[in-house]
Amino acid sequence: MTARIVARSFGQTNSEISRRPSLEKFPKSALNKFENQNDHAPVNQTKIKSNMNTNRNNSNETVAENGFDTNGHRPATEIHTAAPRPHVNGDEKIPMSPPTSKGAAHQKRQRQILAAAAALVVALATGVYYFRFVAPFETTDDAFIEGHVTAVASQVSGRVARLLVRDNQEVKQGDLLLEIDPRDYEAKLAQAQADLKAAQSQLEEAKSQFGADLAKANQERANLVSVEAQAAYAETDLTRKRTIGISGVSQDQIDAAETQVRSTAADVLVARNKISAAEAQSALSLASVGTAKAKIAQSEAALRQAELNLSYTKITAPEAGRVTRRVVEQGNYIQPGQSLLAIVPKNIWVIANYKETQLTHMRPGQPVAVEVDAYPQFKFKGHVDSIQNGAGARFSLFPPENATGNYIKVVQRVPVKIVLDETPESDLALGPGMSVDPKVRVR
Questions:
Q1: Under 8 Å between Cβ of 164 and 177
Q2: Closest Cα to residue 345, out of 152, 178, 127, 121?
Q3: Helices 45-65 and 2-9: crossing angle, nearest 10°?
Q4: Among the listed ranges 71-85, 165-179, 327-341, 342-356, which one has the minimum average pLDDT value?
Q5: 224-248 residue pLDDT tens
Q6: Are 291 and 199 in contact (CB under 8 A)?
C-alpha cells in the first residue's frame, strides 16, 4: 500500500502500479545477477529495505502534504505532481526526496537582483525625465487666449436697408457690412448745400454794402475839406474887413462876413457828423460781411455734417477679422450707439494666470510652447511679453480685504502676457476665451 501511495505521488495510476514489480519481491539471486550484469557493487538487500522504509515515511509525509490521508487512501480529487517516474536501471537513482532549498534561494536572490536593477533603471529614467522635461519648465492650465474685440455700432438712426455679412464671416478692413436707408440724410445734405449758397449770397451782398458805405464815407471826408476851406476863407475875409474898418467897408459888409464865418463853421460841423455817420455805416457793413462769413462757415459745417451722416449710413469694417455676435437683421430700426456686431481680428495673445510661486525664475523674453485644447496636434511658439504688477484678485470688482476676520493664506495668481511669434493659420478658429496650456522654459 505504501509503495502504491508513493507511486501516486509521482503521478502514476493504479494500473501502472499494479503492473510494476515490487523491489521487496525480488529474490536475492536476481538482485545479484542484476548487479553482475551492470558491473556494480553488490546490493545490500537490508540496506535497500531500510531505504525503502525511509522512503515510505517520507512518502507518507509527502502524500499527506499532497492531499492523501495517513492511511494511504486516495481522496476523491487526485493531485498529480510533475515528479519523474522512478526507474531501477543501472546507475539511475530513485528521486524520492523533494529538491533542496539551495536552488530556490538562488532563484529568489536572482529575482531580487533583477527587481532592484529594474527599480534603479526606472528611478534613473524618472530622474532624467524630471530634470530634462519637468524642472526647467513652468506650466499652468489656467490660461486663455485674449484679443481685441471691436464692437461695431451705428452712428445714425434709421432702418437697415441691406445686410451684407453673416455670422463668423471673415472680412477685410473697409468691407461694407450693412447699409441704412439713406434718403433722409440725402435730403438733409441737399438742404445744407442750399443753406451754404444762401450764406455765400449774403456775404456778397454785405461786401457790396460795405463798399458803398465806404465810398460814402470818403465822399463825406472830401466834403468836409471843401467846407473847411470855405470856413477858412470866410474867417480870413472877416478879419480883412475888420482891419479896414468902417472907413473902407460898410457895417453891413462886416456883418455879412461874420454871418458867413458862422455859417461855414456850422457847415464844417455838419460835414464832420456826416463823416462819422458814414464811417459807422461802413463799420456796420463790415460787420455784416463778418456775419455773412460766419454764416458761410456754419453752412459749410452743416454741409460736412450732412455728408458725414450720409456716409454713416454705410457701415464698414474698422479692421480685418471675423464677424461675431451679430445681433442685427435686415429691416431693423437701429439707434445711434446701438451695438450691431463685433469683429475679432487675427492678432491674439495668451494670458496665463501663474501662481506667484512659479514666477521666481520667470522673465520677459523667455520661450514658451503653447498647446491649444481645441487643436492638440499643433504647438505654437511664443515668448513671455510682460508680467502684471499685481495679483489678479487685487484688480477684481471686489478686492479681498485681509484686515478683517480670520485670515487663511491663499496662493495668488498673477497674469502673464504671452505673445505668439507667428500668426496662426487662417483656417484655425482661434479666438478670445479659448483654453490653452503654456509651458515656459525658465531654466
A1: yes
A2: 152
A3: 60
A4: 71-85
A5: 888 888 888 888 877 777 777 766 7
A6: no
E-assigned strand segments in 288-435: 314-316, 321-324, 333-334, 339-344, 348-355, 367-372, 375-387, 413-420
28-41 residue pLDDT tens: 555 454 444 444 44
Q: In which residue are the cell numbers 530513485 written? A: 94
Distance CA 285, CA 138 (A): 81
**In the numeric block, which cell numbers belong to residue 158?**
434709421
Which position has the higher pLDDT, 440 or 267? 440
Residue-level length of the chain: 443
Q: Which residues are within 8 A (CB) of 406 and not within 5 positions of it... i.e. 6 or more apart?
A: none
What is the edge-to-edge ordering of all strands in the sheet holding 339-344?
A: 150-153, 339-344, 321-324, 170-171
Question: CB–CB of 146/351 below 8 Å?
Answer: yes
pLDDT at position 134 is 67
According to DSSP, the residues that pair with 179 across neighbouring strands are: 162, 314
Average pLDDT, the chain: 79
What is the predicted pLDDT for the residue at 424? Answer: 84
Distances (CA, A) of 129 to 34, 116, 125, 285, 443: 71, 20, 6, 94, 15
| Model pTM score | 0.57
What residues contact residue 417 under an 8 Å CB cut-off, 6+ apart?
349, 350, 351, 384, 385, 386, 387, 388
Indicate the pLDDT class of residue 144, thresholds 50, 70 and 90. very high
Q: Give CA–CA dist 371/434, Å, rounded.
A: 11
Strands (E) in 135-286, as ranges, are 137-139, 143-147, 150-153, 158-163, 170-171, 176-180
DSSP state of 435: B
